[in-house]
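Fold these two proteins, one after the other.
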Amino acid sequence: MKIFENIINHKINTITAGELLTYASQFGISINRSQAGKIAEYLRGRQVNIFDSSQRAAIIKEIAKIAGPETAKEVNKLFLQFTK
């Protein structure tokens, strides 16, 4: 199971705005291109573990500052889908 976590975390740490929009669309999450760009820029290069609830919460708080609380809620839904 650890290998899947590593793969997913690596994808989060290297995600582009286009990829984020694609995943959001697949999971029925609404974010716009501008928000996706800001979020992807924030995530890129960070060594985050979305399977760790405290790290995920900290990331969501930062995303809320960048793109607003509603977008952060949507991104959190997306992260939760990835962790299932």
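Now the second one:
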Amino acid sequence: MKIVKEVADWIYSLAVALSLAILINAFVFQPTRVVGSSMEPNLHNNDYVFVSKLSHTFTTPPEYGDIVIIDSRVFRDRSVKDDISDPVLTYLSVAKLTEADRHIWIKRVIGKPGDVIEIKDGQVYRNGSLLAEPYIKEAMQAAAPTKVVVPDNYVYVMGDNRNNSSDSRYIGPVPLSHVLGKVVLTL
């Protein structure tokens, strides 16, 4: 009988610890792994980053230049279920037990609500001013000119490797509810 009680105590302790870990990863702090080269030269494939989820939890908008993780599925609403399941899947990918979710992207904030983002001649302009972007990998290949007004409660994000990045040029502005956190530490 003593062994059964001991086993039950261990199971209870593990369940509480796992629940706390899931809540912390979902709403406070989360490790994640970079997948792909869209943030080169600053972040590389398989780099590890730590993300503060507090801005998402308390719906605080990011600042210009912040590196954030986003849910790229911008045409669907996010739920609390997403907030809990995404970190679990991300943690499993960090531990290399599963493949990384392809809908979680790491990007840099270029525009905030009300900003006019214009891309012309391979350059990015915010509200008519050319952005100084020392963090980009190389000059952006010229494409068709684009002009976007960032709606309320949205941000405009781009990868630092502009010639190899799916970002707001592809999916449009990102709802703040889909900005899942801010990168605070890189390993």
